[in-house]
Amino acid sequence: MKIGFIGLGAMGSAMAGHLLKGGHALTVWNRSPDKAAPFVEAGARRAASPAEAAAGAEVVITSLADDAAVEQVVLGEDGLARGLGAGAVHVGTSTISPKLSERLADAHAKKGQGYVAAPVLGRPPAAAQGKLFVMAAGEAGAVATARPVLEGLGQRLFVVGEAPAQAHLLKLCCNFLIFSTIEQLGEVFALTEKGGLDRARVFEVLTESFFSAPVHKNYGRLILDRAYGPQGVPVTLAAKDTRLMLEAGEALSVPLPLASLVRDRWLAARARGEQDLDFAVLARQIAQEAGLKE
């Protein structure tokens, strides 16, 4: 397919690289042009603007950091909505607010364009191998147009509704489950270490018994290895997602007390200068509160 790809951060680069290897005709754009260079060398075309990246594409994918970036790239001057043809589809993989998702759906509909929200579960290595889990929502015809691309990005596609905002709400919930699981793991590692248990044996028992889900294995390994460097998703994005989760709870009158606790963890991490570290660093904060030293 003819695909425009906008946003070549860690996750976007991994997804774009996988699509390019799959034989799709890719046009790429990134705010920092140097990040597009490897893709151009591999056969992609470089666009001068989001509008140009969308022009002539059947599907244009965005992978951006937050609401502000998405709004500017899609609806701003030279935004992709200006270049996307009627009947073509914008696939938004970013984690954004349901409110912005509704605005995007309305803006695209007015231009005869499709909008499919398709946030993903998985880290960049999974994206590079096409092993993400994709949760999509949008009008049935738009989902059908984008389906070959969505299925190519991941090991499984879940169509969760016809309103794009539903997929973004579900993604916020999934991220919240990851954050709260790290809180649990951090508390368990701190308590068992102070109780004299071997950290590696605790990890083995947990992940080879009842707690064998990828979230326990992947983040439990990061905690075990104390691998909190800036190689993954930073605290800044986790804080943003938690804020959006709390806003959604307020809008729908759903109390979220555990999300408030996690929000305070990110505030403490920022105060400690840890905003650019992997959000698994939350576990180190818990260990230090327990009097443990690395």
Description of the molecule:
With 294 residues, the chain is α/β, with parallel strands linked by helices. 54% of the residues lie in helices and 14% in strands. It contains 14 helices and nine strands. It has a six-stranded parallel beta sheet with strand order 3-2-1-4-5-6, sandwiched between helices. A three-stranded mixed beta sheet has the order 7-8-9. Strand 1, helix 1 (10-21) and strand 2 form a beta-alpha-beta unit. It is globular. The mean pLDDT is 96.
Helix content: 40-55%
Spatial arrangement of strands, main beta sheet: 3-2-1-4-5-6
Average of the residue pLDDT scores: 96
* Topology as a string of helices (H) and strands (E): EHEHEHEHHEHEEHEHEHHHHHH
Radius of gyration: 20 Å
Q: Given the C-alpha coordinates, what overall shape results?
A: globular
Number of helices: 14
Oligomer: single chain
Model regions low in confidence, pLDDT < 50 over at least 5 residues: none
Helix/sheet category:
alpha/beta
The biggest beta sheet, please? Answer: 6 strands, parallel
Tell how many strands the DSSP assignment holds. 9
Share of residues in strands: 5-15%
- The N- to C-terminal Cα distance equals 50 Å
